[in-house]
Fold this sequence. Notes:
Helices cover 33% and strands 28% of the residues. It is of the alpha+beta class. The strands form 7 sheets. An 8-stranded antiparallel β-sheet has the order 7-8-9-10-17-14-13-12, with no helix packed on it. The chain is elongated and about 145 Å long.
Amino acid sequence: xxxxxxxxxxxxxxxxxxxxxxxxxxxxxxxxxxxxxxxxxxxxxxxxxxxxxxxxxxxxxxxxxxxxxxxxxxxxxxxxxxxxxxxxxxxxxxxxxxxxxxxxxxxxxxxxxxxxxxxxxxxxxxxxxxxxxxxxxxxxxxxxxxxxxxxxxxxxxxxxxxxxxxxxxxxxxxxxxxxxxxxxxxxxxxxxxxxxxxxxxxxxxxxxxxxxxxxxxxxxxxxxxxxxxxxxxxxxxxxxxxxxxxxxxxxxxxxxxxxxxxxxxxxxxxxxxxxxxxxxxxxxxxxxxxxxxxxxxxxxxxxxxxxxxxxxxxxxxxxxxxxxxxxxxxxxxxxxxxxxxxxxxxxxxxxxxxxxxxxxxxxxxxxxxxxxxxxxxxxxxxxxxxxxxxxxxxxxxxxxxxxxxxxxxxxxxxxxxxxxxxxxxxxxxxxxxxxxxxxxxxxxxxxxxxxxxxxxxxxxxxxxxxxxxxxxxxxxxxxxxxxxxxxxxxxxxxxxxxxxxxxxxxxxxxxxxxxxxxxxxxxxxxxxxxxxxxxxxxxxxxxxxxxxxxxxxxxxxxxxxxxxxxxxxxxxxxxxxxxxxxxxxxxxxxxxxxxxxxxxxxxxxxxxxxxxxxxxxxxxxxxx
Length: 624
């Protein structure tokens, strides 16, 4: 007969096994707190021991830096979106500290590297390092909590300004990346062609830092003033050589050589070569003119070669047509009026002054984001001229900043060969800044850069100057891809941030007015701020200063010694005496036949003058 064991007989070994299992469970499931510090980075969280080769399981991981936090846990994972728009959630597997930072390692071989970039510890970078499995990912979303800080999104840029108890910071993101304050995620869009997809977090303290200059300066393609000047000078050297050698050959139209001869003369004046190249260039130009009998001298040649009165009379004949067309465009709210070159100068010099108010009223109602590239650059040029020739105001400055942040900045794309202003636009008017193909018009890209350089000087704004330099620098870099390195392609086709095609030609002389420094180019300068509407000066000299007193007007002009030039001053009321070279000079209708001379047309209040410089700066004195 078998003996029946009691309940207590089985209880003891069962309790023993249970206790062993309980301690075994505690060994692998108990959560431990951890905390480490590298510079300003504090990493903390909870983990437990893993099984097998997985020595540690991280349940929660927090990286804290100066008032904001990156939090990773089961309900707050890192999210990667791949090309079929599938979202994959990745958990933290481990972390490793090194002397300047921390590597967070996630499932599927993905790493997020936090690096302290300077000795002060004020600058931190965040960079994803993806495995081959995710090379073609679309976006990477990293949990980020900045609710304890006062945060401002900088208009037109993927840049955020933060203020916390520990100071002021910038978070700088790559193009098209953003911080979503609702979901508390920082979303990075994949950068193409091995460009680093890096986030910068930098403490600015009490320093006043321009946010636009700051963001662009973080790009590996950002160039400084010296690099810009070197490339510009190289391009001008090549262009100048080409203009002297063969640009006139095969040319049959005077209008075709207008910009060429102006660029050649202007650059030769800058280089001190004017006397050497003047007569050979004039001989070639006369050959072109003799092949076109009856043609007027092109406008841009008149400050160098004369023919002022014929040019003046011809342009006066066109004024009424242009004014009538402009009036109709204003009446019909037709934005094509912006395409009139130097719109404000034309109205100031040749049209009823009241049209300026009408134009400003019309442009005030424009939706900037719906403008084409040509239109918003023309509008920017309009406001620039308003500031230069009427006066700088808070209202105009505000409008310039609106165009800059809402339309120009979003139109700049960073490619594998630098920065360009795109032309192609969507139905809403905004450029296509996706991974699809889009177009860059290099002339417009250079024009945008040139306007920014001018506005940088006008407003004393370093960001405008620096960004303008970069747009011109990379546009000029395309000259290396043309046969003689002096012409530029007209258009670039870009696909996935890479230049895949270029077409057309921009002659160097066509962009010369946009890039040349200290240029002796013909221009019509309004004298409104000195005299009144309808007064202006047409000259290729440098206007150094103008002094207007009750009974004497003084014009200080700079031009190389022994060089002669012609000019028109419009809107001068009849005067009693004109002085050149410090002595009274008599009028003569044949003034152009002499080294110096002038003629005044009382009916139109127009002064025609030829001046040969005995000193670099000459003074024209008009006495009443």
